[in-house]
Amino acid sequence: MSDFAGMEDLLQDFLVEAGDLLSGVDNKLVDLERFPDDRNLLNDIFRGFHTIKGGAGFLNATELVTLCHLTENLFDKLRNGELAVSSEMMDVILEATGAVREMFNHLEHGGQPPAADPALIAALKLAIAGEAVPAVEPASTRKSGGEGGGENPGSAHEPDWKLLYNAVAVVPKGAADPAAEAAKLIPAQPLEDPEEVITRAVGRRASDRPGASAPAGRREGERQRDNSIRVDTSRLDQVLNLSGEIGLTKNRLNALRSDILSGRNDTETLHALDLAVSQLDLLVSDLQNAVMKTRMQPIGRLFQKYPRIARDLARNLGKDVELVLAGEETEIDKTMIEDLSDPIIHLIRNAVDHGVEDGVERRANGKPEKSEVRLEARQEGDHIVILIADDGRGMNAEKLRAKALQKGLITDEEANTMDERQSFNLIFLPGFSLAAKVSDVSGRGVGMDVVRTNIQKLNGSIDIRSTQGKGTTFIISLPLTLAILPVLLVRLGEQPFAVPLSMVREILPIELDQVQEVGGRATMVVRGEVLPILPLAGLLGWEQERPPEYGVLMQTAELSFILAIDSFAGREDAVIKSLDDFRPKGVAGVTTLSNGQIVLILDMKEVLGAAGDQRGVARSALVKKLLPQLAAA
Length: 633
Prior knowledge:
alpha+beta, six-stranded mixed sheet
Protein backbone atom coordinates (compact mmCIF):
# COMPACT_ATOMS: atom_id res chain seq x y z
CA MET A 1 0.00 0.00 0.00
CA SER A 2 1.25 3.50 -0.79
CA ASP A 3 2.53 5.69 2.05
CA PHE A 4 0.78 8.62 0.34
CA ALA A 5 -2.83 7.42 0.20
CA GLY A 6 -5.04 10.39 -0.62
CA MET A 7 -2.02 12.53 -1.56
CA GLU A 8 -1.25 11.03 -4.97
CA ASP A 9 -1.98 14.25 -6.89
CA LEU A 10 0.16 16.32 -4.53
CA LEU A 11 2.97 13.78 -4.78
CA GLN A 12 2.84 13.72 -8.56
CA ASP A 13 2.95 17.52 -8.79
CA PHE A 14 5.91 17.59 -6.41
CA LEU A 15 7.83 14.96 -8.41
CA VAL A 16 7.33 16.83 -11.70
CA GLU A 17 8.37 20.20 -10.28
CA ALA A 18 11.18 18.85 -8.10
CA GLY A 19 12.52 16.70 -10.94
CA ASP A 20 12.83 19.77 -13.17
CA LEU A 21 14.45 21.72 -10.33
CA LEU A 22 16.99 18.96 -9.66
CA SER A 23 17.90 18.71 -13.35
CA GLY A 24 18.45 22.47 -13.37
CA VAL A 25 20.58 22.21 -10.23
CA ASP A 26 22.71 19.49 -11.87
CA ASN A 27 23.43 21.75 -14.85
CA LYS A 28 24.22 24.73 -12.63
CA LEU A 29 26.63 22.57 -10.60
CA VAL A 30 28.52 21.72 -13.79
CA ASP A 31 28.74 25.47 -14.52
CA LEU A 32 29.79 26.14 -10.92
CA GLU A 33 32.90 23.99 -11.39
CA ARG A 34 34.01 26.39 -14.11
CA PHE A 35 32.88 29.56 -12.34
CA PRO A 36 33.17 28.82 -8.59
CA ASP A 37 32.76 32.48 -7.59
CA ASP A 38 29.54 33.10 -9.53
CA ARG A 39 27.09 34.38 -6.90
CA ASN A 40 24.08 34.01 -9.18
CA LEU A 41 24.80 30.30 -9.63
CA LEU A 42 25.24 29.81 -5.89
CA ASN A 43 21.95 31.59 -5.18
CA ASP A 44 20.06 29.60 -7.83
CA ILE A 45 21.35 26.27 -6.49
CA PHE A 46 20.52 27.32 -2.92
CA ARG A 47 16.96 28.19 -3.95
CA GLY A 48 16.62 24.88 -5.78
CA PHE A 49 17.44 22.81 -2.70
CA HIS A 50 15.31 25.10 -0.54
CA THR A 51 12.26 24.62 -2.78
CA ILE A 52 12.72 20.83 -2.90
CA LYS A 53 13.04 20.77 0.89
CA GLY A 54 9.79 22.72 1.29
CA GLY A 55 7.83 20.35 -0.98
CA ALA A 56 9.29 17.31 0.78
CA GLY A 57 8.15 18.79 4.10
CA PHE A 58 4.52 18.82 2.93
CA LEU A 59 4.85 15.10 2.16
CA ASN A 60 6.53 14.36 5.51
CA ALA A 61 9.54 12.93 3.65
CA THR A 62 11.81 13.46 6.66
CA GLU A 63 14.97 11.93 5.26
CA LEU A 64 14.72 13.97 2.05
CA VAL A 65 14.20 17.12 4.12
CA THR A 66 17.29 16.29 6.18
CA LEU A 67 19.51 15.79 3.13
CA CYS A 68 18.27 18.94 1.36
CA HIS A 69 18.62 20.96 4.58
CA LEU A 70 22.28 20.02 4.97
CA THR A 71 23.02 20.80 1.31
CA GLU A 72 21.12 24.07 1.62
CA ASN A 73 23.21 25.04 4.67
CA LEU A 74 26.40 24.32 2.75
CA PHE A 75 25.34 26.59 -0.13
CA ASP A 76 24.26 29.28 2.30
CA LYS A 77 27.86 29.43 3.56
CA LEU A 78 29.23 29.30 0.01
CA ARG A 79 27.09 32.21 -1.21
CA ASN A 80 27.94 34.27 1.87
CA GLY A 81 31.65 33.82 1.23
CA GLU A 82 32.30 31.82 4.39
CA LEU A 83 33.49 28.83 2.35
CA ALA A 84 35.07 28.35 -1.07
CA VAL A 85 34.20 25.75 -3.68
CA SER A 86 36.75 22.96 -4.07
CA SER A 87 36.83 19.88 -6.27
CA GLU A 88 36.39 17.59 -3.25
CA MET A 89 33.40 19.61 -2.10
CA MET A 90 31.88 19.44 -5.60
CA ASP A 91 32.15 15.64 -5.56
CA VAL A 92 30.20 15.55 -2.28
CA ILE A 93 27.56 17.97 -3.58
CA LEU A 94 27.07 16.00 -6.80
CA GLU A 95 26.81 12.81 -4.77
CA ALA A 96 24.12 14.53 -2.68
CA THR A 97 22.09 15.38 -5.80
CA GLY A 98 22.37 11.74 -6.83
CA ALA A 99 21.07 10.67 -3.42
CA VAL A 100 18.16 13.13 -3.76
CA ARG A 101 17.30 11.57 -7.12
CA GLU A 102 17.37 8.10 -5.54
CA MET A 103 14.93 9.36 -2.92
CA PHE A 104 12.68 10.60 -5.72
CA ASN A 105 12.65 7.03 -7.06
CA HIS A 106 11.27 5.79 -3.74
CA LEU A 107 8.63 8.52 -3.72
CA GLU A 108 7.63 7.67 -7.29
CA HIS A 109 6.77 4.16 -6.14
CA GLY A 110 4.67 5.31 -3.25
CA GLY A 111 7.14 4.77 -0.41
CA GLN A 112 8.96 7.05 2.00
CA PRO A 113 12.69 7.25 1.14
CA PRO A 114 15.21 5.68 3.51
CA ALA A 115 17.97 7.69 5.16
CA ALA A 116 20.87 8.85 3.01
CA ASP A 117 24.17 7.05 3.29
CA PRO A 118 25.83 7.95 6.66
CA ALA A 119 29.17 8.61 4.92
CA LEU A 120 27.49 11.22 2.71
CA ILE A 121 25.79 12.90 5.68
CA ALA A 122 29.10 12.97 7.56
CA ALA A 123 30.91 14.46 4.53
CA LEU A 124 28.29 17.21 4.20
CA LYS A 125 28.62 18.09 7.91
CA LEU A 126 32.41 18.27 7.57
CA ALA A 127 32.08 20.52 4.50
CA ILE A 128 29.70 22.84 6.39
CA ALA A 129 32.20 23.00 9.27
CA GLY A 130 34.94 23.97 6.82
CA GLU A 131 36.97 20.84 7.47
CA ALA A 132 38.67 18.57 4.93
CA VAL A 133 36.15 16.45 3.04
CA PRO A 134 36.96 12.74 2.55
CA ALA A 135 36.20 11.03 -0.74
CA VAL A 136 32.65 9.66 -0.86
CA GLU A 137 32.15 6.31 -2.59
CA PRO A 138 29.63 6.71 -5.45
CA ALA A 139 26.23 5.16 -4.89
CA SER A 140 26.56 3.02 -8.01
CA THR A 141 29.70 1.42 -6.58
CA ARG A 142 28.11 0.81 -3.23
CA LYS A 143 25.10 -0.84 -4.81
CA SER A 144 27.06 -3.16 -7.02
CA GLY A 145 29.62 -4.08 -4.37
CA GLY A 146 32.46 -3.45 -6.79
CA GLU A 147 33.02 -4.77 -10.27
CA GLY A 148 30.82 -7.70 -11.02
CA GLY A 149 29.30 -7.57 -7.54
CA GLY A 150 25.80 -7.04 -8.85
CA GLU A 151 25.76 -10.48 -10.42
CA ASN A 152 26.82 -12.42 -7.32
CA PRO A 153 23.88 -14.56 -6.23
CA GLY A 154 25.47 -15.06 -2.83
CA SER A 155 25.68 -11.35 -2.06
CA ALA A 156 25.13 -10.50 1.59
CA HIS A 157 22.49 -7.94 0.55
CA GLU A 158 20.50 -10.27 -1.70
CA PRO A 159 16.92 -10.71 -0.41
CA ASP A 160 15.15 -14.05 -0.27
CA TRP A 161 12.92 -13.66 -3.35
CA LYS A 162 10.83 -16.72 -2.48
CA LEU A 163 10.01 -15.31 0.93
CA LEU A 164 9.27 -11.93 -0.64
CA TYR A 165 6.80 -13.62 -2.97
CA ASN A 166 5.10 -15.27 -0.03
CA ALA A 167 5.00 -11.90 1.70
CA VAL A 168 2.83 -10.39 -1.02
CA ALA A 169 0.81 -13.54 -1.80
CA VAL A 170 -2.51 -14.34 -0.18
CA VAL A 171 -1.90 -15.68 3.34
CA PRO A 172 -4.39 -18.16 4.88
CA LYS A 173 -6.13 -16.92 7.99
CA GLY A 174 -4.23 -17.78 11.13
CA ALA A 175 -0.93 -18.26 9.34
CA ALA A 176 2.14 -16.40 10.45
CA ASP A 177 2.55 -13.05 8.71
CA PRO A 178 5.58 -13.50 6.44
CA ALA A 179 5.74 -9.80 5.59
CA ALA A 180 7.41 -8.99 8.89
CA GLU A 181 9.97 -11.75 8.34
CA ALA A 182 10.55 -10.65 4.75
CA ALA A 183 11.16 -7.08 5.86
CA LYS A 184 14.11 -8.30 7.89
CA LEU A 185 15.71 -9.72 4.76
CA ILE A 186 15.43 -6.56 2.67
CA PRO A 187 18.62 -4.48 2.86
CA ALA A 188 18.35 -0.87 3.94
CA GLN A 189 20.01 0.47 0.81
CA PRO A 190 18.75 -0.24 -2.74
CA LEU A 191 20.27 -3.28 -4.41
CA GLU A 192 20.31 -1.86 -7.91
CA ASP A 193 18.66 0.78 -10.02
CA PRO A 194 15.00 0.83 -8.91
CA GLU A 195 13.86 1.60 -12.46
CA GLU A 196 15.50 -1.57 -13.77
CA VAL A 197 13.85 -3.67 -11.06
CA ILE A 198 10.37 -2.27 -11.68
CA THR A 199 10.69 -2.41 -15.47
CA ARG A 200 11.77 -6.04 -15.39
CA ALA A 201 9.00 -6.99 -12.94
CA VAL A 202 5.88 -5.24 -14.24
CA GLY A 203 6.95 -3.16 -17.23
CA ARG A 204 6.72 0.23 -15.53
CA ARG A 205 9.05 3.18 -15.36
CA ALA A 206 10.12 5.18 -12.37
CA SER A 207 8.21 8.12 -13.88
CA ASP A 208 4.86 6.33 -13.56
CA ARG A 209 2.13 7.79 -11.44
CA PRO A 210 2.46 6.63 -7.81
CA GLY A 211 0.18 3.73 -6.96
CA ALA A 212 -0.86 3.19 -10.60
CA SER A 213 -1.10 -0.39 -11.79
CA ALA A 214 0.26 -1.67 -15.06
CA PRO A 215 -2.43 -1.64 -17.79
CA ALA A 216 -3.84 -4.96 -18.88
CA GLY A 217 -2.38 -6.45 -22.00
CA ARG A 218 0.96 -4.65 -21.71
CA ARG A 219 3.80 -6.74 -23.04
CA GLU A 220 6.34 -8.04 -20.58
CA GLY A 221 9.23 -5.63 -20.15
CA GLU A 222 7.52 -2.85 -22.10
CA ARG A 223 7.93 0.55 -20.57
CA GLN A 224 4.93 2.69 -19.75
CA ARG A 225 5.30 6.19 -21.13
CA ASP A 226 4.80 9.40 -19.21
CA ASN A 227 1.53 10.70 -20.66
CA SER A 228 1.52 14.08 -18.94
CA ILE A 229 2.36 17.25 -20.86
CA ARG A 230 2.67 20.96 -20.12
CA VAL A 231 0.83 23.23 -22.52
CA ASP A 232 0.94 27.01 -22.75
CA THR A 233 -2.56 28.35 -22.05
CA SER A 234 -2.34 30.60 -25.12
CA ARG A 235 -2.22 27.49 -27.30
CA LEU A 236 -5.28 26.06 -25.59
CA ASP A 237 -7.06 29.41 -26.09
CA GLN A 238 -6.29 29.15 -29.81
CA VAL A 239 -7.77 25.63 -29.92
CA LEU A 240 -10.87 26.88 -28.10
CA ASN A 241 -11.33 29.84 -30.46
CA LEU A 242 -10.99 27.61 -33.53
CA SER A 243 -13.50 25.16 -32.06
CA GLY A 244 -15.96 28.01 -31.67
CA GLU A 245 -15.42 29.13 -35.28
CA ILE A 246 -15.98 25.57 -36.49
CA GLY A 247 -19.21 25.44 -34.48
CA LEU A 248 -20.48 28.60 -36.20
CA THR A 249 -19.54 27.21 -39.62
CA LYS A 250 -21.36 23.96 -38.78
CA ASN A 251 -24.51 25.95 -37.97
CA ARG A 252 -24.18 27.77 -41.30
CA LEU A 253 -23.87 24.44 -43.15
CA ASN A 254 -26.95 23.07 -41.36
CA ALA A 255 -28.93 26.14 -42.45
CA LEU A 256 -27.77 25.74 -46.05
CA ARG A 257 -28.61 22.02 -45.93
CA SER A 258 -32.17 22.87 -44.85
CA ASP A 259 -32.46 25.42 -47.66
CA ILE A 260 -31.28 22.90 -50.27
CA LEU A 261 -33.61 20.18 -48.96
CA SER A 262 -36.52 22.63 -49.17
CA GLY A 263 -35.83 23.16 -52.87
CA ARG A 264 -33.58 26.22 -52.89
CA ASN A 265 -30.77 25.32 -55.27
CA ASP A 266 -30.21 28.68 -56.93
CA THR A 267 -26.75 30.04 -57.72
CA GLU A 268 -26.61 32.20 -54.59
CA THR A 269 -27.32 29.24 -52.27
CA LEU A 270 -24.75 27.02 -53.99
CA HIS A 271 -22.17 29.80 -53.83
CA ALA A 272 -22.85 30.21 -50.10
CA LEU A 273 -22.43 26.45 -49.65
CA ASP A 274 -19.11 26.54 -51.48
CA LEU A 275 -17.86 29.38 -49.27
CA ALA A 276 -18.94 27.58 -46.09
CA VAL A 277 -17.20 24.36 -47.09
CA SER A 278 -14.01 26.28 -47.97
CA GLN A 279 -14.11 28.07 -44.64
CA LEU A 280 -14.61 24.79 -42.81
CA ASP A 281 -11.65 23.28 -44.65
CA LEU A 282 -9.45 26.21 -43.61
CA LEU A 283 -10.61 26.10 -39.98
CA VAL A 284 -10.08 22.35 -39.67
CA SER A 285 -6.56 22.73 -41.06
CA ASP A 286 -5.81 25.52 -38.57
CA LEU A 287 -7.27 23.44 -35.73
CA GLN A 288 -5.13 20.47 -36.70
CA ASN A 289 -2.00 22.64 -36.64
CA ALA A 290 -2.99 24.16 -33.30
CA VAL A 291 -3.54 20.74 -31.74
CA MET A 292 -0.17 19.57 -33.06
CA LYS A 293 1.48 22.56 -31.39
CA THR A 294 0.08 21.47 -28.04
CA ARG A 295 2.16 18.30 -28.39
CA MET A 296 5.35 20.27 -29.06
CA GLN A 297 7.80 20.75 -26.18
CA PRO A 298 11.15 22.60 -26.00
CA ILE A 299 13.94 20.11 -26.54
CA GLY A 300 15.85 21.90 -23.77
CA ARG A 301 13.92 19.76 -21.28
CA LEU A 302 15.64 16.76 -22.82
CA PHE A 303 19.05 18.42 -23.11
CA GLN A 304 19.26 19.63 -19.52
CA LYS A 305 20.33 16.27 -18.06
CA TYR A 306 23.29 15.73 -20.40
CA PRO A 307 25.87 18.21 -19.01
CA ARG A 308 25.99 16.25 -15.76
CA ILE A 309 26.39 12.94 -17.65
CA ALA A 310 29.22 14.34 -19.79
CA ARG A 311 30.91 15.87 -16.74
CA ASP A 312 30.86 12.67 -14.69
CA LEU A 313 32.06 10.50 -17.58
CA ALA A 314 34.89 12.87 -18.51
CA ARG A 315 36.02 13.04 -14.88
CA ASN A 316 36.08 9.25 -14.63
CA LEU A 317 38.15 9.02 -17.83
CA GLY A 318 40.55 11.76 -16.73
CA LYS A 319 39.55 14.11 -19.55
CA ASP A 320 38.57 17.78 -19.57
CA VAL A 321 35.38 18.01 -21.64
CA GLU A 322 32.80 20.78 -21.90
CA LEU A 323 29.34 20.01 -23.28
CA VAL A 324 27.97 23.03 -25.15
CA LEU A 325 24.20 23.20 -25.69
CA ALA A 326 22.52 25.15 -28.51
CA GLY A 327 18.98 25.42 -29.86
CA GLU A 328 17.33 24.43 -26.58
CA GLU A 329 14.22 26.40 -27.52
CA THR A 330 13.63 24.19 -30.60
CA GLU A 331 10.30 22.40 -30.19
CA ILE A 332 9.79 18.69 -30.81
CA ASP A 333 6.87 16.29 -30.49
CA LYS A 334 6.45 15.20 -26.86
CA THR A 335 6.16 11.55 -27.91
CA MET A 336 9.69 11.68 -29.35
CA ILE A 337 11.45 13.11 -26.30
CA GLU A 338 11.53 9.89 -24.27
CA ASP A 339 12.64 7.79 -27.25
CA LEU A 340 15.46 10.23 -28.04
CA SER A 341 16.95 10.10 -24.56
CA ASP A 342 18.92 6.84 -24.89
CA PRO A 343 20.32 7.49 -28.41
CA ILE A 344 21.67 10.91 -27.41
CA ILE A 345 23.19 9.48 -24.22
CA HIS A 346 24.97 6.81 -26.32
CA LEU A 347 26.31 9.43 -28.73
CA ILE A 348 27.55 11.72 -25.95
CA ARG A 349 29.23 8.82 -24.16
CA ASN A 350 30.78 7.75 -27.47
CA ALA A 351 32.08 11.27 -28.11
CA VAL A 352 33.61 11.61 -24.63
CA ASP A 353 35.09 8.09 -24.57
CA HIS A 354 36.18 7.53 -28.20
CA GLY A 355 35.89 10.88 -29.95
CA VAL A 356 37.95 13.32 -27.88
CA GLU A 357 41.56 12.71 -26.92
CA ASP A 358 43.09 12.99 -23.48
CA GLY A 359 45.04 16.08 -22.50
CA VAL A 360 48.47 14.70 -23.44
CA GLU A 361 47.39 13.72 -26.97
CA ARG A 362 45.58 17.03 -27.53
CA ARG A 363 48.64 19.05 -26.49
CA ALA A 364 50.82 16.95 -28.79
CA ASN A 365 48.44 17.71 -31.67
CA GLY A 366 48.42 21.44 -30.93
CA LYS A 367 44.86 21.49 -29.62
CA PRO A 368 43.59 23.16 -26.45
CA GLU A 369 43.59 20.78 -23.50
CA LYS A 370 39.88 21.26 -22.91
CA SER A 371 37.83 19.48 -25.58
CA GLU A 372 34.35 20.49 -26.65
CA VAL A 373 31.32 18.35 -27.40
CA ARG A 374 28.44 20.27 -28.96
CA LEU A 375 24.79 19.24 -28.72
CA GLU A 376 22.60 21.35 -30.98
CA ALA A 377 19.01 21.24 -32.24
CA ARG A 378 17.38 23.25 -34.99
CA GLN A 379 14.40 23.11 -37.31
CA GLU A 380 14.98 22.78 -41.03
CA GLY A 381 11.76 22.84 -43.03
CA ASP A 382 9.50 20.05 -41.84
CA HIS A 383 12.31 18.26 -39.96
CA ILE A 384 14.16 18.61 -36.68
CA VAL A 385 17.94 18.24 -36.95
CA ILE A 386 20.03 17.28 -33.90
CA LEU A 387 23.83 17.51 -34.07
CA ILE A 388 26.29 15.82 -31.70
CA ALA A 389 29.76 17.05 -32.64
CA ASP A 390 33.20 16.74 -31.05
CA ASP A 391 36.57 18.28 -31.84
CA GLY A 392 38.46 15.03 -31.31
CA ARG A 393 40.54 12.68 -33.41
CA GLY A 394 37.93 11.92 -36.08
CA MET A 395 37.29 8.59 -37.80
CA ASN A 396 39.50 6.59 -40.14
CA ALA A 397 37.44 4.96 -42.91
CA GLU A 398 40.17 2.49 -43.81
CA LYS A 399 40.56 1.39 -40.20
CA LEU A 400 36.79 0.89 -39.91
CA ARG A 401 36.70 -1.32 -43.01
CA ALA A 402 39.64 -3.38 -41.77
CA LYS A 403 38.00 -3.95 -38.39
CA ALA A 404 34.66 -4.93 -39.94
CA LEU A 405 36.47 -7.31 -42.29
CA GLN A 406 38.38 -8.84 -39.38
CA LYS A 407 35.14 -9.45 -37.47
CA GLY A 408 33.51 -11.03 -40.52
CA LEU A 409 30.81 -8.35 -40.73
CA ILE A 410 31.57 -7.58 -44.39
CA THR A 411 33.22 -9.40 -47.30
CA ASP A 412 36.38 -8.44 -49.21
CA GLU A 413 34.24 -7.42 -52.19
CA GLU A 414 32.07 -5.13 -50.07
CA ALA A 415 35.11 -3.58 -48.37
CA ASN A 416 36.67 -2.73 -51.75
CA THR A 417 33.53 -1.03 -53.07
CA MET A 418 32.69 1.05 -49.98
CA ASP A 419 33.00 4.81 -50.10
CA GLU A 420 33.78 6.96 -47.04
CA ARG A 421 30.14 7.45 -46.01
CA GLN A 422 29.41 3.73 -46.16
CA SER A 423 32.57 3.03 -44.16
CA PHE A 424 31.47 5.41 -41.40
CA ASN A 425 28.10 3.65 -41.26
CA LEU A 426 29.86 0.39 -40.36
CA ILE A 427 29.87 1.50 -36.73
CA PHE A 428 26.11 0.92 -36.69
CA LEU A 429 26.51 -2.81 -37.40
CA PRO A 430 25.62 -5.06 -34.43
CA GLY A 431 28.77 -6.25 -32.69
CA PHE A 432 31.08 -3.66 -34.28
CA SER A 433 33.50 -1.93 -31.89
CA LEU A 434 36.99 -0.45 -32.15
CA ALA A 435 37.56 -0.61 -28.39
CA ALA A 436 40.58 -2.70 -27.45
CA LYS A 437 38.85 -3.97 -24.31
CA VAL A 438 35.39 -3.97 -22.79
CA SER A 439 34.93 -1.30 -20.12
CA ASP A 440 32.08 0.13 -18.07
CA VAL A 441 31.64 2.76 -20.79
CA SER A 442 31.93 0.90 -24.08
CA GLY A 443 33.47 -1.94 -26.02
CA ARG A 444 30.62 -4.41 -26.48
CA GLY A 445 29.56 -3.12 -29.89
CA VAL A 446 25.89 -2.65 -29.04
CA GLY A 447 25.51 1.09 -28.39
CA MET A 448 25.57 2.48 -31.92
CA ASP A 449 23.31 -0.30 -33.21
CA VAL A 450 20.78 0.74 -30.56
CA VAL A 451 21.13 4.37 -31.64
CA ARG A 452 20.28 3.67 -35.28
CA THR A 453 17.42 1.31 -34.38
CA ASN A 454 15.77 3.86 -32.08
CA ILE A 455 16.16 6.69 -34.59
CA GLN A 456 14.60 4.60 -37.36
CA LYS A 457 11.66 3.78 -35.07
CA LEU A 458 10.99 7.53 -35.03
CA ASN A 459 10.98 7.60 -38.86
CA GLY A 460 14.26 9.48 -38.72
CA SER A 461 17.74 9.04 -40.13
CA ILE A 462 21.28 9.43 -38.81
CA ASP A 463 24.32 10.44 -40.82
CA ILE A 464 28.02 10.81 -39.98
CA ARG A 465 30.56 13.40 -41.09
CA SER A 466 34.13 13.10 -39.89
CA THR A 467 37.53 14.56 -40.63
CA GLN A 468 40.65 12.94 -39.23
CA GLY A 469 42.28 15.10 -36.60
CA LYS A 470 39.38 17.57 -36.47
CA GLY A 471 36.42 15.64 -35.11
CA THR A 472 33.18 13.83 -35.87
CA THR A 473 29.58 15.02 -36.23
CA PHE A 474 26.49 12.83 -35.95
CA ILE A 475 23.46 14.34 -37.68
CA ILE A 476 20.02 13.08 -36.63
CA SER A 477 17.08 14.12 -38.80
CA LEU A 478 13.55 13.63 -37.44
CA PRO A 479 10.04 14.55 -38.60
CA LEU A 480 8.31 17.36 -36.72
CA THR A 481 5.64 15.00 -35.45
CA LEU A 482 4.83 11.30 -35.42
CA ALA A 483 1.09 11.94 -35.61
CA ILE A 484 1.20 12.86 -39.31
CA LEU A 485 3.48 11.01 -41.72
CA PRO A 486 4.00 11.96 -45.39
CA VAL A 487 3.61 8.74 -47.37
CA LEU A 488 3.58 7.50 -50.95
CA LEU A 489 0.60 5.33 -51.81
CA VAL A 490 1.58 2.33 -53.92
CA ARG A 491 -0.58 -0.51 -55.25
CA LEU A 492 -0.36 -4.24 -55.69
CA GLY A 493 -3.26 -4.92 -57.99
CA GLU A 494 -6.07 -2.89 -56.46
CA GLN A 495 -4.73 -3.04 -52.91
CA PRO A 496 -3.01 0.18 -51.77
CA PHE A 497 -0.12 0.33 -49.30
CA ALA A 498 1.67 3.33 -47.82
CA VAL A 499 5.47 3.69 -47.59
CA PRO A 500 7.27 6.58 -45.80
CA LEU A 501 7.97 9.40 -48.21
CA SER A 502 11.25 10.18 -46.41
CA MET A 503 12.73 6.98 -47.88
CA VAL A 504 11.56 7.69 -51.46
CA ARG A 505 14.06 9.23 -53.87
CA GLU A 506 12.25 8.89 -57.19
CA ILE A 507 9.71 6.86 -59.16
CA LEU A 508 10.70 5.24 -62.43
CA PRO A 509 9.20 2.77 -64.91
CA ILE A 510 10.48 -0.81 -65.00
CA GLU A 511 11.17 -1.68 -68.62
CA LEU A 512 12.02 -5.25 -69.53
CA ASP A 513 15.04 -4.34 -71.63
CA GLN A 514 16.59 -2.49 -68.66
CA VAL A 515 16.31 -5.39 -66.19
CA GLN A 516 19.50 -7.41 -65.87
CA GLU A 517 20.40 -10.54 -63.96
CA VAL A 518 23.40 -10.11 -61.66
CA GLY A 519 24.20 -13.15 -59.56
CA GLY A 520 20.68 -14.49 -59.95
CA ARG A 521 19.15 -11.18 -58.85
CA ALA A 522 17.00 -8.81 -60.82
CA THR A 523 18.76 -5.43 -61.03
CA MET A 524 18.57 -2.10 -62.83
CA VAL A 525 21.23 0.49 -63.52
CA VAL A 526 20.21 3.97 -62.34
CA ARG A 527 22.71 6.72 -63.18
CA GLY A 528 25.60 4.27 -63.15
CA GLU A 529 24.60 2.51 -59.92
CA VAL A 530 23.47 -1.13 -59.99
CA LEU A 531 20.45 -1.46 -57.71
CA PRO A 532 18.55 -4.62 -56.76
CA ILE A 533 14.85 -4.81 -57.60
CA LEU A 534 12.83 -5.94 -54.59
CA PRO A 535 9.22 -6.76 -55.50
CA LEU A 536 6.76 -5.64 -52.85
CA ALA A 537 4.68 -8.75 -53.54
CA GLY A 538 7.68 -10.96 -52.78
CA LEU A 539 8.49 -9.04 -49.59
CA LEU A 540 4.93 -9.48 -48.36
CA GLY A 541 4.65 -13.10 -49.47
CA TRP A 542 1.96 -12.37 -52.09
CA GLU A 543 1.70 -14.17 -55.40
CA GLN A 544 3.06 -12.02 -58.24
CA GLU A 545 0.31 -12.10 -60.89
CA ARG A 546 2.15 -10.06 -63.51
CA PRO A 547 5.48 -8.28 -63.89
CA PRO A 548 5.41 -4.94 -62.02
CA GLU A 549 5.35 -1.81 -64.14
CA TYR A 550 6.88 0.76 -61.79
CA GLY A 551 9.73 0.99 -59.34
CA VAL A 552 10.20 3.26 -56.34
CA LEU A 553 13.85 4.07 -55.68
CA MET A 554 14.17 3.90 -51.90
CA GLN A 555 17.11 4.48 -49.61
CA THR A 556 17.74 3.42 -46.02
CA ALA A 557 20.87 4.02 -43.95
CA GLU A 558 22.52 0.86 -45.28
CA LEU A 559 20.72 -0.05 -48.52
CA SER A 560 19.44 1.52 -51.72
CA PHE A 561 16.98 -0.53 -53.76
CA ILE A 562 14.09 -0.35 -56.20
CA LEU A 563 10.74 -1.39 -54.75
CA ALA A 564 8.77 -2.99 -57.58
CA ILE A 565 5.01 -2.17 -57.59
CA ASP A 566 2.06 -2.40 -59.97
CA SER A 567 1.07 1.27 -59.77
CA PHE A 568 0.96 4.22 -57.40
CA ALA A 569 -1.79 6.56 -56.21
CA GLY A 570 0.14 9.67 -55.20
CA ARG A 571 1.27 11.39 -52.03
CA GLU A 572 -0.71 11.70 -48.78
CA ASP A 573 -0.18 13.23 -45.36
CA ALA A 574 -1.32 10.21 -43.37
CA VAL A 575 -2.77 10.57 -39.89
CA ILE A 576 -1.28 7.50 -38.23
CA LYS A 577 -3.48 5.25 -36.12
CA SER A 578 -1.30 2.88 -34.10
CA LEU A 579 -2.05 -0.81 -33.60
CA ASP A 580 -1.24 -1.31 -29.93
CA ASP A 581 -3.06 -4.56 -29.24
CA PHE A 582 -2.35 -6.25 -32.57
CA ARG A 583 0.61 -5.15 -34.65
CA PRO A 584 1.71 -7.46 -37.47
CA LYS A 585 5.42 -7.40 -38.20
CA GLY A 586 6.23 -4.92 -40.92
CA VAL A 587 3.22 -2.68 -40.24
CA ALA A 588 3.90 0.70 -38.59
CA GLY A 589 0.22 1.64 -38.38
CA VAL A 590 -2.85 2.34 -40.48
CA THR A 591 -4.44 5.39 -42.04
CA THR A 592 -7.78 6.13 -43.69
CA LEU A 593 -8.10 7.63 -47.17
CA SER A 594 -10.64 10.25 -48.16
CA ASN A 595 -12.89 7.51 -49.58
CA GLY A 596 -12.88 5.67 -46.25
CA GLN A 597 -10.51 2.89 -47.35
CA ILE A 598 -8.10 1.65 -44.68
CA VAL A 599 -4.46 1.47 -45.78
CA LEU A 600 -1.54 -0.23 -44.03
CA ILE A 601 1.57 1.91 -43.45
CA LEU A 602 4.58 -0.34 -44.01
CA ASP A 603 7.64 -0.33 -41.78
CA MET A 604 10.17 -0.97 -44.53
CA LYS A 605 13.00 -1.93 -42.17
CA GLU A 606 10.87 -4.70 -40.65
CA VAL A 607 9.54 -5.74 -44.06
CA LEU A 608 13.07 -6.12 -45.40
CA GLY A 609 14.19 -7.96 -42.28
CA ALA A 610 11.25 -10.34 -42.37
CA ALA A 611 12.01 -11.21 -45.98
CA GLY A 612 15.47 -12.52 -45.06
CA ASP A 613 18.87 -11.48 -46.27
CA GLN A 614 18.55 -8.10 -47.98
CA ARG A 615 21.14 -9.02 -50.57
CA GLY A 616 19.37 -12.19 -51.67
CA VAL A 617 15.76 -11.23 -51.29
CA ALA A 618 15.44 -10.35 -54.97
CA ARG A 619 15.57 -14.07 -55.84
CA SER A 620 11.82 -14.13 -56.16
CA ALA A 621 8.94 -14.55 -58.52
CA LEU A 622 10.00 -11.32 -60.21
CA VAL A 623 13.20 -12.90 -61.54
CA LYS A 624 11.30 -15.97 -62.66
CA LYS A 625 8.79 -13.89 -64.60
CA LEU A 626 11.06 -11.22 -66.07
CA LEU A 627 14.10 -13.19 -67.15
CA PRO A 628 12.29 -15.71 -69.42
CA GLN A 629 10.67 -12.78 -71.23
CA LEU A 630 14.08 -11.17 -71.67
CA ALA A 631 15.47 -14.43 -73.03
CA ALA A 632 12.57 -14.72 -75.48
CA ALA A 633 13.09 -11.16 -76.63
